[in-house]
Structure formats: structure tokens, C-alpha cells
Design brief:
alpha+beta, eight-stranded mixed beta sheet, seven-stranded mixed beta sheet, 38% helix, 16% strand, globular
């Protein structure tokens, strides 16, 4: 204590009191009003299931609102109590986290927008909509419902809340209301009773009549304060008035708060009376450490390892805190870290691990990765919102496994099993006599010259060469209906293969009408089949095939085959034969007529025509004759490599029959049933555990669906092949009415299949067709009684008898049930059970089928390991082969794997079989994701931070690999800290350090905004939302502020007087508060033309609502067919832009949207903060096939070589004069960031305005403009009479990202010229912000570019003393340019029409993508890229006087200058402001003129007069009118 006071005494007496510590804060809010947490909670629960949502709606009536005891905290706790009744502790944490993130605010706002689109009636707090008609009064509902059926039903979205009990035929009533209001509950109860009576379908949508004034504070983004290079001064000298900011930013409560080894948090606790002195000492220490003197290169080398060592010496509980602190404040911590010693064990272990990181995960030193339960979480593409989804999904599975009694390490072993249905393509057996083969490679003489050894496959050939070997490796079967119009084309392809000696064995099966009384004189299909058979018998199959081809040659394209076509060929080829004897009623040529049809039906290969390759059916879209040829050739090459492997491994030898070998592969099944192979599958939730059974009907009806399923499973008794105990991984529940033939048939087939396999258990669920009574449930009761009372084998034999029709007929005729008893049955117990009057089990089963399986009465279904296959249609065949296929699939994908895991746990057999079924249903129901990664071989003694999970609870296995001095560490550390509060995890953080650093690894401070739960003030009110705080920042450096938001967010800076591009804390009073708003959520997509498979360049989409159809628009890029549209939460309609886009194209199909694929309106719902990416396919309209989007419909001259010569010689003007009077506007584009450049920009605009009489329109890139500029520009536009538009584009996620702000802005100057401006803009001039114009720019716009897409000025050569700095005169540039000029990018003119036509934008982006991966290339991105592309996208050189800059041009040429640019001078490094005043005499006059205008604006603003100027839009490229 004494020492501390002494230190304080000495220190205070030395009076080092400097200014207060400085801070920077950043907040991000939504544009929409804050949404009530009650509604957000209901949306969270609806993702758990509609049952939970509606239960919460009922229960929410009892929540006491904030008015009750006045505090936000208590109402929040009340609400959580109600919401958490059905949630596990883990899910409760995820709910709190979601509320803190406000991640469901967007869902609530989406409904709010949908309601606004309905235009709510005035003065109502809630309203009803019935098929488009609105009312606020419940009493007038009746009238609306009467006529409802005449109006179309409304479109319901995927996220809509539909009351579970409803009659699908009844009219839809949508209630727009706010949960929690008394009025809502009154109407809700009335609507529920109507819905339960089957009168209406009740849908609830959130609608807040009086939204709050607050905005939603968002989190889940990062804020970077980067240190700027001050080589060239770019700071404005205009003074800024600070705003009053709440000064309580400094966080006194940090429990550690370490500065230079002093733990101030602890000291404040120990010596509360010294708090003022401690504050002063802390401030002094902070300031003395914050001086950031640069480090020497030798000090930098080992920083990564030293930081890791510093983190690993901290106790594990604090290690993440230390990592966060060091990485996020690295520039001020680096000097202290250089003193850390790195132990040799740590270094060796990291280097050892790095071999594994590289070998198994492909990670280089310095890379990072995060795995949750083995799933890779990609931090660059996955935002926190999609991470919550991963956590929720994992939680569901883990809690499911836990409730089934699988825990700890075995839980993780089961979780890691890959049970996703593999994409192995199933094949059918083609060894059927129904297929008529027209050739056989192994015996036909035409193939005699080919080698016949399978070893030939291993002989090397050129890639892509098809080997000709006399073996039937490749078998091509056509199953066709001869009368179908595509048949001729398909047979032509087969004929082409045959005649070109492609090694393909070709088979045919004609599927025709097989009824006895149809003959070949009436039915062309039968005629063709009989002709084929006749010729095949007379000659051979091949000749018969040729005859069929000549018949089809008679049929005109697009016509159908007719009997006369067949007759005419027959008469010509066989003039002496009686036609009717071949085609007529007594024909003997009906071979394969019935067989082919039976084969086609039995294999279940889908709608005709079908093409099988080695038994595998081709997809529908591959049957197009043009594609079929390439697809088949591709298949031949693909399967050749499989055969090569088989021969090499000795699996296939010369004496084996190749066909037998192919047909014995595991993917060959007797029947392909598309129902079974579908990828969208539905599973029961079998994770419920209870002690209920179906024989207590009263109790059964009260259970929810999960518990009902558990009760049904508990009551099951199974039939198995033998009575032994054996774990059977496949369980079938057969659902049907067993008192009806169809149900018995299904059961009979299942039992027959089960007799052939010991992997299967079978049981039954009754779904009676009518109300059960003792008469109509005889079979059901007999089966039930046998299962309850007999051994499995006896029960099976007895039930097999019960499933036969003759048994049932005898029973109906009055036979006694015991006549059918099988040997060994205990008839007494059986009879007692059978005659018991209780039919609870049938009633329970009936309710279960109705409510959980959603079946109609008597409908059949099969449930295999919890997967519902059904409802089966009335006549639908589902036979033994289908059960065989089902078993095959289950064993292959999941059954065997799960069985082997569960056997290790030592459960008894019956329980284990049950577990396999339940675990399979749980794992297979997971959405198809990436495979999980194994990582059990990393060393973790010295180089990993380890946090152990709480005992006895389920835990997540989290592995992070990170270099602590990278941007990833700045993000990962806070994320892991939050996760640690949310979930129970077994965490290991492995260090992956880089050695021999030559540069400072992190030049920025960073904060990641994320809080695990909503926080409250001391008064129990909601604390203001989460913000990023940079406290105790050093004051000497110059900072620039950047936001790192999720990919689909577009944010803008809204309120701050400070220059966020140049933050200099020495000049700031206390706090720089930056406020941002989420301006748009991005809707992204990819678009393709289905005819060409290419993106339709220049196609335009619009996005709007039903009331205002066009709110934003966009242009499709050729790169990946990418487009982006700016939207906000709500339901939007995507349309083709009116004009050429809509005239030429139509939307063909769409994917990832919210309307059914065939709907003409494409509806997209944005209801969360995650990225939304859609795919749209378009097709040219039939009469527009030859139209081109980018030509304007007139016959415009393509400027070819001669055209450009003609202009060159005659100086002819490309009919510009005619065009200009239509819209004589000068379009000028510019970008600026930071107050100084914005000051230059205003002066540049003024200099342009002073020199032209042509109307002007300025286009500015909105992304980086300051709020002050955006506020002032409408005023300036009005005073000087020009138009302006703010354009913005989000850097696409697939294009290589730049991290430095300056380089991003350079990228925007050049990379998106084709999509930033509407198609109506033909020419755009880019003028740098720091340029002063001295001439009329109309001259530049009308300058003849000789067919080049853009014109630039070359760099001056006249100032000789700068020769040493002209990098383009030597090395790479000199050789690349090959005598051409190197151009400067400060001023250029773009002919956008030409630019789009030659796809210049796509070429530039492609080249950029290739070059930008190398950090050393494109050092001046906006300038190097067009110069590098000069051979692909030509540049027209503008005359030198168009751009004069003192650095490169001599003084004598200045008087001719049309524009003056303030280039940086690498020799003198003179600050821009100083240079401007020195070089350009008129600059200061312009500057004064603007300053005067600004002070007038300020005065008017304080008086409250300036409004937004009429006709001035800050719209996006949105309200563009197509000119």
C-alpha cells in the first residue's frame, strides 16, 4: 500500500497532466424502426416448428408488459420465461444471443413491409385480408368470406404462420396484427375457433401500427482503425466543430484493465479511496505506451511467435482475452511483445503441426481456420447469422443424440458419420430378353479387326481417344414409344454411333399398347414393332433396325408416325408378302410386346423416352439429341477409367463376361423408384423419449407430435427373419388399411422381402379407411393380437397368411380366425387378445396417421428408419424390389456405419436396433452440408490454448487454427470469447505462426461488435445498443475508419462532422463518434440464357412491389452472369426491365426464390441478415432469336477498320450531332473520400460549370462520401443548376477483395463502368477530384475515339528532371507496351455503348482477377489495369494538352493545358493543398466561392429553411427512365 501511495505521490507531483484520453466509437443501426423483442422471439421459435410458435402466441397473453412494473428488464425476463418453457438450456442461450444480435428483426420488418404493400386501412391497429379484400372489423368478416371463393387465394410465403388445424379448401384469412396487444388476443381466439371448425385457413402476419422512434442497433460486424501512410499529406485544414457525445464511453468496469503490468481493475477494487489518483496514473501510463515509434526490421522478425508465446503463458481462462487484446491493439502492443522469449519446444511443436495443417487441411503458415464439430466455418464468407444456424442445427442433432442416451466422445463419433445420401447413380439390370440388341461387339464380324483383350485398356493413348476393343464395355439401351415425336431423333443418334464404329452395344425396347384387341393396322406403334420383329426374323436385328430408320425417314419433322408410313416401306421392301399377315390381327410377330412394357414398368425408370447407359438412366435434360451425343461420348471416357482400374486391380479378367461384371456392381438394383431416390426427404423426429403407448387412446391424443411418435415407437413389436438377437439396421413401418387389399399387398411384399434379409425388421401402423368398429378391423386386430402374444416367427407366418386374399375371403364368409393358426401358436392367449373389445391401438394409429404423418384415411405409406415415403397413390406399385432398393440405400449410406458405432456402446440388441433407426432419422434429416473434417493428430502440449467443457453436458468440439498477428485473429478471438459464454465447448486454439516477418504484420486497431446477451443499465432499462469502442488511442498517427460487414450489407455513414478518412486524434476534443446505417440488404443472383448457356450480357432486371413495380434496377454482367439488386426486408417481385430486356427475353425458371418455379411472377422474400443468392434462367422469345440486347434495335454501324479509317481521313462525325439534341447532357463521373478530396471535388465541379453551357449531370460513387458532402450537394445543385446522382455498387464477393481503402476506391474507378450507369447513358467522362478544368468538356465528350471504347491522356515526357521516376520507360512496362504510350487515369472518356458491346468490363475484371492475387502487381490499380489490357481493350490516346500536371510536364506547356491535375510529386512530396494554391492561380477564388456557399448553407440550415431540392435525387440507378 505504502509503495503504491509513494508512486502516486511522486507521479502526481511531477504534474504530467495532459489532455484527456481520446476515443473513437462506431455504431451501426437499421433504417427501419426498432421491432419488439416479443415478435422477434416468436420468429425464433417458429424456426423450431410452427407448433412452438402457436404455443408461444397463446402463452404470450400472460406476459406482463413494461408498464406493469416499469422496467425493461423484468418484462424481458417474463418473456424469456414463457419462451424458454420448451427450449433446452443451450437453445435458451441461442435465443438470447439472437435477440442481442437482433437477427429476427429483419423477419418482423419483412412482414411490416408486406403489410405496408397491402396499404393498411386508416386508423386501425390491426386488419384482416380475405382474398384481397380488407376490413378492420371482425363482424364484417362474414360478408367477405361469402364471396371469397370467387377471388383467387393469396400467395403464402415460406415464412408465413399458418394455424396448424385448417381445412385446405376453406378461404384464407390473413390477420395483420401485433402480438402482445389486447385487441390481438380477442380476435385471435375467434379466428382459432373458426379455423378449428374448418371454416377458414388462419394466417398471422406481424403488423405494428405505431412503430417505435428508435432504430435497431446491429452487431456482428468489425470496425478497423487503420494507420494511414502520411507520405503525401491529404488532410483538410478546415476546422470541424465536435458534437456533444456521451462521455461515459470509457469502460470503468473492465475486471482486468491491464496497462504496463498494472491491473487497474484489481487496484480499483483494493483501493476504492484512491480512484481519482489511479485514474491519473492510468492515463499517464497509457500515453507513455501509446507512442508508436517504428520497429527495426530485426525486431519484427519473430513477432508472430512472440505474440503466441505471450498468449500461451496466460492462464487458459484469460488466454482468449489476451489474444483479443494483443491482436486488436497490436500497433501499440508490438514494442512490448518484442521482449518476449519463445521457447524451443513451442517453436518445434508449431512447426511440426504446420506439416499437418498443410498436408491435411491445405493451410499455409499464417492461415487460419475454424471448425465446429468438424464443420469448416469459413470466416470470409460466413457471417455470424449463418454461424447461429450452424450452431442451432448442431444443437438439435446433439441434443437428439443426448436424449437417446448417446453421450460424450461417442456422441461426437456418431455425429461425424457421413450419412448424406451419396450421389451414386443407380442402374437397372439390362440382361433382359425384352431388349433387342442390334449389335454385339464380341461376336459381330464387323468388329473382327479390333483387339479383344481387356488388357488393351491399359495401353496408353492420347487423352480423349475412345479405345476400340471387342468387349461389350459400353451398352446403350433406348426404351421408346415409337409414336413419340422425339423417337426418330434418338434413333438417329443411335444409328450415327453404329455407323461410325463407336464401341457401343445398342439395344432397343419398343413400349407400345399391349392390349390383345389392338393390332398393327390401327396402331402405328404396334405396326412398327411387328415390322421390326418380322424383318429381324427374316434377316437379322441390324437389318430390322435399318428398316425402322427408313420408316422414320418418311415421317416429316414434327409429324407423328402413322400406319401408312410403315405400310409403304413394307410394301416396297417385301412386295410379295401380305401386309395384313404381318400387321393384322393374326400376326405372329408380337415378340417382346408384352415383355418390353413389363420391363419398362418393372424397372421404374420414369417417363418415356428413356436412355440407359450400362443400365443408368440419363437425366431428362441430357436427352436433347445434340447433347445426347456429347454426354454419351463423355460417359464412355468416364467408364473406361473405371474399367481400367478394375483390370489393373485384377477384378476384371479376360475370361469374365463383361456384362455380368457390370451387372454385379453394387449400384445395380432390380428397380429404380424415383420416390425412394428423391433428394428432398422427409423424416420423423424420433428423439422423443417417454413411457406412453398407443393402447391408452385418451392419453395419446394429448401428446404433441414428437411424443406421439415416441409412443408409437414404444408400442412396436417387430417381425424379423430369425428369432435370434441381432442388431438390424433397417426398420420398416408399413402404414395402410390392412382390412383392404391394397394395404395387405404392401404388407405382404414387405414380409416377403424381409424373409430374404436378416438386416430388416418390419412392423405395422393401421390407417383405417372408415371409422373403426369390430367388423371392419378384423385383420388389423388379428395382426395386433399375434404381434402382442406370439413369438416373432409364428407371428410372421400367421400375418403372412392374414395378408393373403383367400384368407380374408374365408373370414368374410364366416370362417373362424383360429382355422388359420400356424403350428406352434399359443391359440388361447391369442384368442383372448383378439376378442378383447379394446381398439385403442387402432384409434391411436388413426390419429397418428392423420396428425403426424398427414395421411388421408386409408392411404398407404412406408416409413424406413424414420423416413416417410408416401403417401402412395391408389394404384401405385411398391413391391419387393422397392423394399430391396430401400434397404440397399439405407445400408450403404447410414445403416451399417451407425450400427457399428452403436454396437461399440454395448446396448442390448433390440434396443440397439431401435437406436440405429432413431439415430439414422436424426442424422439423415440434416440438411446436406460439407463433410466433417478429422483432426486428431495435432500436438497440443505447448502451442494450443485449451478450454475443457463442463462435465456431463453435451459439448461442441471447437478447433481454431490461427496466427495471432493477422486480421483473422482480430475477428476470431472476440468470436470465441462470445461462443464460450453461449455454448459448452471443448476448445483448442492452435497457433500457426509465420517466421521471418519483414513488415509490421498488423497496421490497424480492430473491434468486433458482438454481445452474447442484451445488456441493461443500472436502472434496469435497455442499454443503448452494441457499439465499437476504441479507447485510449494513440494521438500521433493518422487513422482511417473502415467497416467490415457481412457480404450482403450496404452501409453508409450518416452522422458525423469528422473526416472518417483522416482521423487525427490530437485535433479532436474527446470522442469521434461515427454513426453508420444499414442502407440496403443485397439480393444477388446469377443469370443464364438456357439456349446458349451463356450469361445474357446487358439484360436488365428490376425489383419492386405490387404497388411500385420498379424501385431498383441492375444490369447482368458477363462474369458468372452476376447481378445485384439493393433491397430491404420484405417481399419483392423480380421482373425483366420494360423495354428491350422484356421484349427479347422471358424468365424461364428460377431457383432460390420464394415463388413456385413455374410461377410467372418471381417473388423474393428477404427476411434475414444472411446473403440471399438466386439463380435465374432466361430464354429468348421465339420471334426474337436473332436480336441482340446491346444493339438498340436500329441498324447501327459496327465501327470496323474501314469505318474508323473513313472518319480518320474525312474527320467525319459519327452522326453525334443528330443524337445530341435528344439529350444534350454532359455526364461526369468522379470519386472522392475524405474531407480534403471532397473539397477538391467541389472545386473541380465549379471549374467544369464555369466553362460550359451544356447541361451537366454529375455521378458520384456514394460508398465513400461523407455525410456533410451528401447533405451539401443538393443545395449546391440548386444554386448552380446541375443534376447529380449518387451511384453505388457492392464489390462482388467472387472478385478478389482489396483490403486497403484507397485501392478499393481505385478499383471502383475502372472495374464496374458497365454496371454503374443506366444503359441510357452513352458517354461518361471521368474527372479526378483534384483536377481543375479550363475548357468546355463538351469537346472531350464529342472527341472521336476511332472505335476504341475509351480514351486516356498519355503521361507527359517533357519535364526531364523526373526521368528517374518514369517507371514505364523500363523493365516490364517498356516491353509490354512495345512502343505504345503509358496513360494516366486522372481523366478519361468512355464510350459506354462500345464498352458494353465488346464486353470490356468483363475483360477488365477477368484480367484483374488473374493479376490481383499477386500483392506486388497492379500497384496503381486504376491506371495499371487499362494499360496492361491495351492489347485486348484498345485505348485511344487523347492529345497531351487535355491533362497537364506539374510533376511530369514542363512549365512551357502549361498555358495550353485544358485541365490541370495535382499529381503527387515523388521527388518533393509536397502536400496537395499547398500545391493547389501554388500551381493554379484560380484555385483560391473557387475555394472562397464554395466556402461562401457553405456558410450560407449553414445559416439557412440553422434557420431551418433548406429542404431537399425538388427534382434532385439521391436515388440509386433506380428511377432511371429508359431513354
Amino acid at each position: 500500500m505504502g509503495i503504491l501511495i509513494a508512486i502516486l505521490g511522486i507521479w502526481v507531483s511531477s504534474s504530467l497532466v495532459k489532455a484527456d484520453s481520446k476515443a473513437v466509437t462506431t455504431s451501426l443501426t437499421t433504417k427501419w424502426s426498432s421491432t419488439p423483442l416479443l415478435l422477434e422471439t416468436s420468429e425464433f421459435l417458429s424456426e423450431e416448428g410452427q407448433e412452438k410458435f402457436w404455443n408461444f402466441v397463446e402463452a404470450s397473453e400472460n406476459i406482463k408488459t413494461a408498464e406493469h412494473d416499469g422496467s425493461d428488464y423484468s418484462s424481458y425476463q417474463e418473456m424469456l420465461k414463457v419462451a424458454c418453457q420448451t427450449l433446452s438450456p443451450l437453445q435458451q442461450n441461442l435465443l438470447k444471443f439472437s435477440l442481442s444480435l437482433r437477427s429476427y428483426s429483419a423477419a418482423v420488418q419483412a412482414f411490416q413491409q408486406i403489410a405496408a404493400d397491402e396499404s393498411p386501412p386508416e386508423g386501425c391497429t390491426l386488419f384482416f385480408v380475405v382474398h384481397g379484400e380488407k376490413t378492420c372489423e371482425f363482424d364484417s368478416l362474414g360478408n367477405l368470406l361469402q364471396a371469397a371463393s370467387d377471388r383467387p387465394k393469396p400467395f403464402l410465403f415460406k415464412g408465413d404462420h399458418k394455424y396448424p388445424v385448417s381445412n385446405p379448401e376453406s378461404p384464407v384469412v390473413i390477420l395483420y396484427a401485433e402480438l402482445g396487444s389486447e385487441e390481438f388476443y380477442r380476435h385471435h381466439r375467434r379466428l382459432v375457433s373458426k379455423a378449428e371448425a374448418g371454416e377458414i385457413t388462419y394466417v398471422l402476419r406481424h403488423y405494428i401500427a405505431n412503430p417505435s422512434k428508435e432504430k435497431v442497433y446491429l452487431s456482428g460486424y468489425g470496425v478497423e482503425l487503420a494507420i494511414k501512410s502520411t507520405e503525401y499529406k491529404a488532410k483538410d485544414d478546415t476546422q470541424v466543430k465536435g458534437t456533444d457525445v456521451n462521455a461515459t464511453v470509457i469502460d470503468e468496469n473492465d475486471p482486468i484493465d491491464e496497462v504496463q503490468g498494472f491491473l487497474f481493475g484489481k487496484l480499483r477494487q483494493l483501493y476504492p479511496d484512491l480512484s481519482e489518483e489511479l485514474k491519473e496514473l492510468r492515463k499517464h501510463l497509457v500515453e507513455s505506451t501509446n507512442e508508436m515509434a517504428p520497429l527495426k526490421v530485426w525486431q519484427l522478425q519473430d513477432l508472430s511467435f512472440q505474440t503466441a508465446a505471450r498468449i500461451l503463458t496466460a492462464p487458459p481462462v484469460d488466454a482468449l482475452m489476451v489474444m483479443k487484446d494483443l491482436s486488436q491493439n497490436f500497433p501499440t502492443k508490438a514494442r512490448a511483445i518484442t521482449k518476449t522469449v519463445v521457447s524451443s519446444e513451442l517453436r518445434a511443436e508449431i512447426e511440426e503441426n504446420q506439416k499437418y495443417f498443410k498436408g491435411t487441411l491445405g493451410l499455409q503458415p499464417g492461415d487460419s481456420a475454424l471448425f465446429i464439430n468438424g464443420l469448416l466455418i469459413d470466416l470470409d464468407t460466413q457471417d455470424i447469422f449463418s454461424l447461429i444456424d450452424v450452431l442451432r442445427n448442431e444443437a438439435r442433432v446433439m441434443e437428439g443424440l443426448h436424449s437417446l442416451g448417446i453421450e460424450g466422445i461417442s456422441l461426437h463419433n456418431v455425429l461425424k458419420l457421413n450419412t448424406q445420401p451419396s450421389d451414386s447413380h443407380y442402374a437397372v439390370d439390362i440382361r433382359s430378353p425384352a431388349i433387342s440388341w442390334i449389335n454385339n461387339l464380341e461376336v459381330d464380324s464387323r468388329y473382327n479387326s479390333w483387339p479383344s483383350s481387356v488388357q488393351e485398356l491399359l495401353r496408353p493413348t492420347f487423352p480423349g481417344v475412345i479405345r476400340q476393343i471387342r468387349k461389350n464395355f459400353h451398352n446403350f439401351v433406348l426404351i421408346v414409344d415409337p409414336t413419340h415425336e422425339t423417337t426418330a431423333e434418338l434413333l438417329n443418334v443411335a444409328e450415327m454411333f453404329f455407323s461410325n464404329h463407336i464401341p457401343l452395344r445398342i439395344g432397343l425396347a419398343f413400349v407400345v399398347n399391349d392390349s390383345e384387341d389392338v393390332d398393327g393396322l390401327q396402331d402405328p406403334g404396334v405396326a412398327l414393332l411387328r415390322t421390326y420383329n418380322y424383318v429381324a426374323q427374316e434377316m437379322d436385328n441390324n437389318y430390322a433396325f435399318q428398316t425402322v430408320m427408313s420408316i422414320y425417314n418418311k415421317v416429316k419433322t414434327g409429324d407423328q408416325l402413322k400406319v401408312e408410313h410403315v405400310v409403304s416401306v413394307l410394301e416396297k421392301q417385301y412386295p410379295y408378302v401380305e401386309v395384313s399377315s404381318i400387321l393384322g390381327i393374326d400376326s405372329a410377330y408380337d415378340q417382346n410386346r408384352k415383355a418390353a412394357k413389363a420391363y419398362y414398368e418393372q424397372t421404374g425408370v420414369g417417363p418415356l423416352p428413356v436412355v440407359l447407359f450400362n443400365g443408368m438412366p440419363f437425366q431428362k435434360d441430357q436427352l436433347d439429341p445434340d447433347d445426347l451425343e456429347t454426354v454419351t461420348m463423355h460417359k464412355i471416357l468416364e467408364t473406361t477409367s473405371i474399367f481400367q482400374r478394375a483390370v489393373y486391380l485384377g477384378e476384371l479378367s479376360n475370361d469374365q463376361d463383361v456384362i455380368e461384371y457390370i451387372m454385379n456392381q453394387p449400384n445395380v438394383v432390380p428397380r429404380i423408384n424415383s420416390r425412394i431416390l428423391r433428394s428432398d426427404r422427409e423424416y420423423l423426429d424420433l428423439t422423443g423419449m417417454n413411457n406412453h403407448f398407443v393402447d391408452d387412446f385418451a392419453r395419446f391424443t394429448t401428446l404433441d407430435s414428437k411424443d406421439k411418435t415416441a409412443a408409437v415407437a414404444n408400442s412396436m413389436t417387430y417381425l424379423t427373419k430369425k428369432d435370434d438377437s441381432f442388431v438390424r439396421p433397417v426398420t420398416f413401418w408399413i402404414v395402410g388399411d390392412f382390412d383392404k387389399p391394397s394395404g395387405r399387398q404392401l404388407l405382404y411384399d414387405a414380409i416377403k422381402h424381409q424373409k430374404s434379409s436378416n438386416n430388416v425388421r418390419v412392423s405395422m401402423i393401421n390407417n383405417p379407411s372408415e371409422e373403426p368398429n369390430s367388423q371392419n378391423t378384423i385383420v388389423a386386430k388379428a395382426i395386433w393380437a399375434a404381434l402382442q402374444t406370439q413369438t416373432s416367427n409364428n407371428a410372421k407366418n400367421f400375418i403372412t397368411k392374414m395378408a393373403k386374399e383367400e384368407t380374408v375371403k374365408a373370414l368374410e364368409a364366416g370362417a373362424d380366425i383360429l382355422e388359420f393358426a400356424v403350428g406352434g401358436m399359443d391359440t388361447n392367449i391369442f384368442k383372448e387378445a383378439f376378442e378383447s373389445p379394446k381398439v385403442d391401438f387402432v384409434l391411436s394409429h388413426a390419429v397418428y396417421c392423420r396428425d403426424v404423418l398427414k395421411l388421408k384415411k386409408g392411404q398407404r405409406a412406408v416409413i424406413s428408419n424414420g423416413r416417410i415415403i408416401g403417401p402412395l397413390e391408389d394404384g401405385e406399385m411398391f413391391n419387393q424390389d422397392d423394399f430391396h432398393l430401400l434397404e440397399n440405400i439405407i445400408l450403404k449410406t447410414s445403416g451399417q456405419k451407425i450400427k457399428s458405432q452403436i454396437q461399440q456402446l454395448g446396448f442390448e440388441e433390440d434396443l440397439a436396433s431401435d437406436l440405429v433407426m432413431k439415430v439414422d432419422a436424426l442424422l439423415s434429416a440434416q440438411p446436406k452440408g460439407e463433410a466433417r473434417i478429422e483432426y486428431h493428430f495435432f500436438e497440443e502440449r505447448y502451442s494450443a490454448v485449451k478450454l475443457r467443457p463442463k462435465e456431463g453436458e453435451t459439448y461442441f468440439d471447437v478447433v481454431a487454427i490461427v496466427d495471432p498477428v493477422t486480421r483473422d485473429a482480430q475477428r476470431l478471438a472476440p468470436l470465441l470469447l462470445v461462443l464460450n459464454q453461449l455454448i459448452n465447448m471443448n476448445l483448442r486454439v492452435f497457433m500457426n505462426c509465420q517466421s521471418k516477418l519483414s513488415d509490421m504484420p498488423l497496421k490497424s486497431f480492430y473491434r468486433y461488435v458482438l454481445e452474447p446477451e442484451i445488456s441493461f443499465t443500472a436502472e434496469n432499462n435497455f442499454a443503448p445498443g452494441p457499439i465499437a469502442k476504441f479507447l485510449d488511442m494513440p494521438q500521433s498517427p493518422l487513422f482511417t475508419l473502415n467497416l467490415n460487414t457481412p457480404e450482403s450489407w450496404m452501409v453508409e455513414s450518416v452522422r458525423t462532422p469528422y473526416d472518417l478518412d483522416n482521423i487525427f486524434l490530437e485535433e479532436v476534443d474527446s470522442v469521434v463518434a461515427a454513426e453508420y446505417e444499414l442502407e440496403y440488404l443485397l439480393l444477388e443472383g446469377h443469370c443464364y440464357d438456357i439456349t446458349t448457356g451463356q450469361p445474357p450480357r446487358g439484360l436488365q432486371f428490376t425489383l419492386g412491389t405490387s404497388t411500385s413495380p420498379v424501385i431498383v434496377d441492375t444490369i447482368v454482367m458477363a462474369n458468372l452472369g452476376y447481378f445485384q439488386l439493393k433491397a430491404n426486408p420484405g417481399a419483392w417481385t423480380l421482373r425483366l426491365r420494360k423495354g428491350r430486356s422484356e421484349d427479347i427475353y422471358r424468365i424461364y425458371s428460377h431457383d432460390g426464390t420464394d415463388s413456385p418455379p413455374e410461377a410467372s411472377e418471381v417473388i423474393v422474400v428477404l427476411n434475414n441478415f444472411k446473403s440471399k443468392i438466386i439463380k435465374v434462367k432466361v430464354q429468348k422469345k421465339f420471334d426474337m432469336m436473332n436480336e441482340d440486347l446491346l444493339s438498340d434495335g436500329t441498324n447501327e454501324n459496327e465501327s470496323g477498320f474501314w469505318e474508323s479509317l473513313k472518319w480518320g481521313f474525312t474527320g467525319g462525325q459519327k452522326n453525334e450531332d443528330v443524337k445530341q439534341d435528344k439529350d444534350d447532357v454532359l455526364n461526369i463521373f468522379s470519386v472522392a473520400s475524405g474531407h480534403l478530396y471532397e473539397r477538391f471535388l467541389r472545386i473541380m465541379m465549379l471549374s467544369v460549370l464555369k466553362h460550359t453551357k451544356t447541361p451537366l449531370k454529375f455521378w458520384f460513387l456514394k460508398n465513400y462520401l461523407s455525410p456533410t458532402f451528401k447533405e451539401f450537394i443538393p443545395y449546391m445543385a440548386k444554386k448552380y443548376n446541375f443534376q447529380y446522382e449518387l451511384v453505388q455498387y457492392k464489390w462482388p464477393r467472387w472478385l478478389h477483395q482489396q483490403t486497403e481503402k484507397q485501392r478499393i476506391i481505385w478499383g471502383y474507378k475502372i472495374l464496374f463502368l458497365d454496371v454503374l450507369f443506366p444503359l441510357a447513358v452513352d458517354k461518361i467522362l471521368f474527372v479526378d477530384a483534384d483536377q481543375i478544368v479550363r475548357t468546355d468538356l463538351k469537346e472531350l465528350r464529342d472527341f472521336n475515339l476511332d472505335g476504341a471504347p475509351y480514351g486516356y491522356t498519355p503521361f507527359c515526357d517533357s519535364r526531364r528532371e523526373m526521368d528517374g521516376y518514369r517507371f514505364w520507360k523500363s523493365g516490364y512496362w517498356a516491353s509490354h507496351l512495345a512502343g505504345r504510350k503509358y496513360h494516366i487515369s486522372a481523366l478519361y472518356v468512355v464510350d459506354l455503348k462500345k464498352f458494353r458491346k465488346i464486353a470490356a468490363g468483363d475483360r477488365l475484371r477477368g484480367q484483374y482477377q488473374g493479376l490481383s492475387q499477386d500483392p506486388n502487381s497492379l500497384s496503381n490499380l486504376d491506371q495499371d489495369l487499362p494499360n496492361n489490357m491495351i492489347h485486348q481493350v484498345p485505348i485511344k490516346s487523347l492529345p497531351q494538352e487535355w491533362l497537364w500536371c506539374e510533376t511530369w510536364c514542363d512549365d512551357s506547356s502549361k498555358k495550353r493545358a485544358k485541365t490541370i491535375d495535382l499529381c503527387n510529386n515523388p521527388m518533393t512530396k509536397e502536400p496537395k493543398l499547398q500545391a493547389a494554391m501554388r500551381i493554379v492561380p484560380e484555385w483560391q477564388d473557387y475555394d472562397q466561392e464554395i466556402k461562401l456557399l457553405q456558410s450560407n448553407f449553414q445559416k439557412e440550415k440553422e434557420m431551418g429553411t433548406p429542404a431537399k431540392m425538388p427534382g434532385q435525387h439521391t436515388h440509386d440507378p433506380a428511377a432511371h427512365v429508359e431513354l
